Amino acid sequence: MLNNIGLPGLLLIAVVVLVLFGRGKISSLMGEVGKGITSFKKGINEGEKELADQSETTEEETASEKDKV
């Protein structure tokens, strides 16, 4: 069904959305989407950093246990 939407169809949809919501509402919505994406990326980076810290801690504990034996 959606395979037949071309450039004219997308332009028509964009115009209808712009008329219904207005330019201010759409720009504020896009700003919120941008903030959400930024927050998501920040969360991903923090999660990767936390995993790296945990793996370093585990390696240090393993090394100290081997030294004790």
Automatic annotation (TrEMBL):
Gene Ontology cellular-component annotations: TAT protein transport complex
Keyword annotations from UniProtKB, A to Z: Cell membrane, Hydrolase, Membrane, Protease, Protein transport, Translocation, Transmembrane, Transmembrane helix, Transport
Transmembrane region(s): 6-22
Statement: the UniProt record of this protein carries the keyword Transport: yes
Region (Disordered): 48-69
One Pfam entry name: TatA_B_E
Keyword hit for Membrane: yes
Membrane topology recorded in Swiss-Prot or TrEMBL: Single-pass membrane protein
Compartment list: Cell membrane
GO MF entries: peptidase activity; protein transmembrane transporter activity
Single GO biological process annotation from the record: protein transport by the Tat complex
Family, as annotated: Belongs to the TatA/E family.
Subunit and interaction comment: The Tat system comprises two distinct complexes: a TatABC complex, containing multiple copies of TatA, TatB and TatC subunits, and a separate TatA complex, containing only TatA subunits. Substrates initially bind to the TatABC complex, which probably triggers association of the separate TatA complex to form the active translocon.
Record's function text: Part of the twin-arginine translocation (Tat) system that transports large folded proteins containing a characteristic twin-arginine motif in their signal peptide across membranes. TatA could form the protein-conducting channel of the Tat system.
The protein's name in its UniProt record: Sec-independent protein translocase protein TatA
Organism whose genome encodes this protein: Sulfitobacter mediterraneus
Gene this protein is translated from: tatA
